[in-house]
Design a protein that fits this description.
- Keywords: Membrane, Transmembrane, Transmembrane helix.
- By secondary structure, this protein is mainly alpha-helical.
- It has one domain.
- About 85% of the residues lie in helices and about 0% in strands.
- The chain contains four helices and no strands.
- The longest helix has 28 residues.
- The protein is elongated and about 45 Å long.
Length: about 120
C-alpha cells in the first residue's frame, strides 16, 4: 500500500506541473516551442516556479515522507521529459530549458517547505 501512495504522490505532483503548463499555453495562445517575448518568458518562469512548488508540496502532503527522495524523483521526471523534448522537438527550446534549470529543481522546494514545517511543529 505504501508504494501505491508514493507512486500516486509522484503522479499527482507531475500532473499538477503538466496541467498548469498546458493551461498557461492554452489560455495565452502562446505555443510552447515558438519564440516568446521577454515578458512572457518572465511570466512563465514565475508561473512555472509557483506550480512546481505546489507540485512538490502536494506530493509531500500525499506521501507524508520525512525525506526529499520522492521530490527528487519528481524533479528527475520533470527534467527527464524536458530533456527528451529538447532533443526531439523542433523550434525554440526556451520552455524545456526552464523546466530543466528552474522548474525541476524548484519542485523540491515545495517538499522541503512541508518537511520543514512538520519538523518545526513538533
Amino acid at each position: 500500500m505504501n508504494i501505491l501512495i508514493k507512486t500516486l504522490a509522484i503522479i499527482t505532483g507531475y500532473a499538477i506541473f503538466v496541467v498548469s503548463s498546458l493551461a498557461l499555453f492554452q489560455l495565452s495562445g502562446q505555443k510552447p516551442h515558438d519564440p516568446a517575448t521577454g515578458g512572457f518568458r518572465v511570466l512563465t518562469a514565475f508561473y512555472g516556479a509557483f506550480f512546481s512548488i505546489v507540485s512538490g508540496l502536494v506530493l509531500q502532503l500525499i506521501a507524508r515522507t520525512k525525506t526529499l527522495t520522492l521530490n527528487i524523483v519528481l524533479a528527475v521526471i520533470i527534467a527527464g521529459f524536458a530533456t527528451f523534448s529538447l532533443l526531439k522537438a523542433g523550434g525554440s527550446h526556451w520552455t524545456q530549458w526552464m523546466a530543466i534549470l528552474i522548474f525541476a529543481p524548484v519542485s523540491i522546494v515545495g517538499g522541503l517547505f512541508l518537511i520543514w514545517r512538520r519538523s518545526a511543529a513538533r
